[in-house]
Amino acid sequence: MGEMTPYLKFKSLLTGYRQYRLLEAAFDAGVFDIVGAGSVTAEALCGKVGWDVSFGSRALGALCVLGFLEETPQGFRLSRHGALFFGTGAPHPMAGTLVFEKRLFDAWELLGETLKTGERVYSATEKSEAEYKKDLAQYIEAMDEAARIRAEELWALVMPEKEAGRFVELGFGSGAYSLAFLDRHPGWSGSLADLDDVVGFFAEKKAHHPAFGRIGLSCVNLLEERWDLPGCEGADLLLLSNLVHCQGDDETLGIVRRAAALLAGGGTLVVHDFYRDRGEAGGLYDLHMMLNTYNGKAYTTGEMRAMVEAAGLVFAGDLSLPSGSCAVLARKM
Ligand SMILES: C[S@@+](CC[C@H](N)C(=O)[O-])C[C@H]1O[C@@H](n2cnc3c(N)ncnc32)[C@H](O)[C@@H]1O
């Protein structure tokens, strides 16, 4: 298919929620778990998920149109595209992402009011310890699903010049970027730092990973003006991935400055994120931060260049990734 006409682009934006609602209804009902195990007739499938056969068959047809399922003489099954994301053995499972996305709707309902108020309106309700832990696990799982895809994109473009070195990631989340880097570069060791609950979660979930033994972990609040991170000093490559959007200009500049101070001479800082001047993803991410954080924002690549230069580094270019994010690179001389 050629380029979308302006009207087609408008219309697909206008009705995008219909695709999402169908995907959500099918996911929530368990359709993908069932077709993931092999072809199944519409009658059997609808019976298992509790759908009316006549209406449910139409929904299954629509899932074929969207490209998630295909119909064979034996019934419905996952298409090649659908099998990337659903079913046992999917290389890029998206179940956590679908569960997490629902949590964002309430904040987006408040966009108009937020724009009028000029400050965050949405606030999460008070959580018990158990709810907080469950929400953190969901957040990290959703982040991990996206990060595992995007890490491959990043490290295919950003390659170290040395066989061995010290890799540092601050605000590592699920650790997907760090683990993917260390997988590719067995001569490197890693030092990772994040808030203590996130560090604990990583240590619990990823201890079995082959690169785990080459990683040192530290707990830190990156907003504090002084960091006690001796394990992160002398970094040959330091990654800030999807971290700078969590806070406003002054705090982010402080983080960039302190991160620059951790670099070894000749070391590289990689600031990977969604940038406002790099397509739709960055523009919408900026609003996502407006709605869901105290003062987070998506920066432009120009703003980030000014920050790395203010931190005494030499801007070394930027790289756009296929999934819409971008890496700003800077060197310590
Ligand atoms: C959006 S996640 C990104 C995780 C990972 N770098 C990635 O790209 O998938 C932001 C991470 O930064 C961490 N973070 C945010 N503010 C922080 C702070 N003040 N101190 C330490 N870590 C922080 C969060 O805990 C979270 O793990």
From TrEMBL:
Cited InterPro entries: COMT-like (IPR016461), COMT_C (IPR001077), SAM-dependent_MTases_sf (IPR029063), WH-like_DNA-bd_sf (IPR036388), WH_DNA-bd_sf (IPR036390)
In terms of Pfam families, this protein maps to:
Methyltransf_2
Keyword check for Transferase, yes or no.
yes
- Give a GO molecular function annotation for the protein: O-methyltransferase activity
Could you provide one GO biological process annotation from this protein's UniProt record? methylation
Quote the PROSITE patterns the UniProt record gives: SAM_OMT_II (PS51683)
Keywords, alphabetical: Methyltransferase, S-adenosyl-L-methionine, Transferase
Q: Tell me where in this chain the O-methyltransferase C-terminal domain is found.
A: 120-312
Query: What name is this protein filed under?
Result: O-methyltransferase
The taxonomy runs:
Bacteria, Pseudomonadati, Thermodesulfobacteriota, Desulfobacteria, Desulfobacterales
